[in-house]
Request: fold
Amino acid sequence: MLIRSLLLISFLTLSGCVKVPNDIKPVSGFEINRYLGQWYEIARLDHSFERGLSHVSAQYNLRDDGGIEVINRGYLDSQNSWKEARGKAYFAKSSDLGFLKVSFFGPFFGSYVIFDLDTENYQYALVCGPDRSYLWLLARTPTLDKEITDRLTAKAAASGFATDNLIFVQQQ
Reply:
């Protein structure tokens, strides 16, 4: 219940915030069918709705209405339990642009901007929200090669994200 309350507060704050941060470009040539499936959170900037979570993953599936079902899951060590949040996402503009709007509560949507992606194999992605306080480094596997992690972190830093504050998520 705590996670849901925190998500509600966070997404109420984000309502109406379906935008791309200045000087961030969503990937083009995006293919949703290749993006679907399981992703693991390698690193993130801290936010109340994920605070204390380890083993964080996201599952993306197609919905009957053409949108995407989002299932975020993580382990809350302090409560010794798994937490799950279910939402939905839709393209904010065109379906070949890595810019979606996501909602976990009714009509309130926030930005999901993919601004770096392994376009060859869809094995890693760099994602932000409507501003530079939201950042996630995702991968198809629970760990990611240090070289790739360093490159994505450097890109995020050069794009104005506070990468010194990244939380590297325990996945093991």
Summary: Residues 1-15 have pLDDT under 50 and may be disordered. Helices lie at 2-14, 32-35, 146-158. The longest strand covers residues 81-91. Residues 107 and 159 are 30 Å apart (CA to CA).
